[in-house]
Amino acid sequence: MEIPQVIDVDGMKLRFEDLFKAPEKDGTVISVRVHRSVKEALMRLAEKEGLHGVSELVRYIIAGFLMGKYKIVKPDPKVLAPPIYLNINVVKTTRPPNENPEEAELALEALEAKAEIEEVIKEAEDFITKAKLKAVKLQGNEYARKLRTKIFKAMVKAVRYNFRDRIEKLKQLFEELNNLLVNR
Q1: First-to-last CA distance in the chain?
Q2: Cα–Cα separations (whole angstroms), residue 11 to 8, 30, 71
Q3: N or C: which end of the chain has fewer CB within 10 A?
Q4: For 160-183, how does the pLDDT look when each residue is reduced to its tens digit (9 = 90+)?
């Protein structure tokens, strides 16, 4: 089911993106008179939510009303998935069975650790990209703190198994996420 890009609201054509914009050229001003205490409450709420003033908060309130009343939903972005390349290397060795089971177990643990580290790297890169695009709010974001801990644990694992290239990548991601959290 494809979500329409333009929605009809009582004869007016609206796009989802227009609900949250305040453009200079196509924009207009709406003036609302409220009690001083209501304005103070709205200012505090906007600051608490990390918005740029009462105007942005009111835009979000209006957008929320229209979305609820007219069943407007955010359209899914049209994204093409990148191709997946899979390399399989088969190395045939002649080894007597049960030659050194501890060595084989250590190799398996290292392989599992590398897969976990790669997963953490991908997750961190995705989150940092979203954070830089301001698609995620960093203030009070518990997931970001947990991800930072996850990166640190992956870095310890990489050191344990001597994955030098992954250690450097994890250090870079850890510092980048740390800077984003500190400079939010």
Answers
A1: 37
A2: 6, 20, 15
A3: N
A4: 888 888 989 999 999 998 888 887
The token pair at 115 is 């897969």
Is the Cβ–Cβ distance between 51 and 57 less than 8 Å? yes
pTM of the predicted model, to two decimals? 0.45
For the chain, the domains span: 6-69, 101-182
**Taking the CA of residue 35 as centre, how many other CA atoms within 13 Å lie in the half-sphere pointing to its CB?**
3
